[in-house]
Each structure stands twice: as C-alpha cells, then as structure tokens.
C-alpha cells in the first residue's frame, strides 16, 4: 500500500484553476512543487499521490512521479500533470505537506460521477464539525 501526501492548493482560486495549472505542465510531462526537505518516507510513496486540500476538504489527487533535488538544495515533488477528482472529504488546513495513509485516502470518483454528485467542501466541513459525517 503506497503512502500519500496532502497539501493545500494555496494559489488556486478554484478546483478548476488547480486543474488548469496542472494541465499547463502536460507538455513537459510533469508539474513540480518545491519543498525544503525530502520526505523521510519518500520511498514508501512509490505509486502514491498528492491529495489536494481546497477550502478545508480533499478534492482531488495527482500521482507522485518522484522527487528530485534542485541545485539550491531544495527538492521538487514531481507530479503527473492531472487532477483526478475524489469524493470530497473534510481535511484541516496545514502548512507544508503531511502524510496520508492509504486507508484514510478518499476514493476516486467513478465513471458517471461528478463532483456535483457529492457534498461541496464547505458543507462537508460543517457537517464534520457537527459530528454528522
């Protein structure tokens, strides 16, 4: 079972904006995020994904292609340039990235399902706060 990561989509104004940013890197075959440190458990992330947090909810994932050190000592998180929608799941905001176990990761949306078939992130967050989800 691969290990995953979570990260806030901090510069995205919407999930569509995040998708557009990722897909704009399709011509080079990967999107890259910068991080100061190589995750200690990076070897467990082979086959894993980075799950994106938007408005306090996990909304999609991008497969992790690997990690690469930059010349300045920082690291790139190399991602497939696509956003795979997942069933919205409440997730508190945090700085940087965090690990996410396979059993805690939301499932991908199936064929014929759309993000409109699931709760909006704000509603999911409020219901979780109330202990109803």
TrEMBL record:
Highest taxon, organism lineage: Bacteria
Stored InterPro entries: UCP032025
Short name of one Pfam family: DUF1489
Protein's UniProt name: DUF1489 family protein
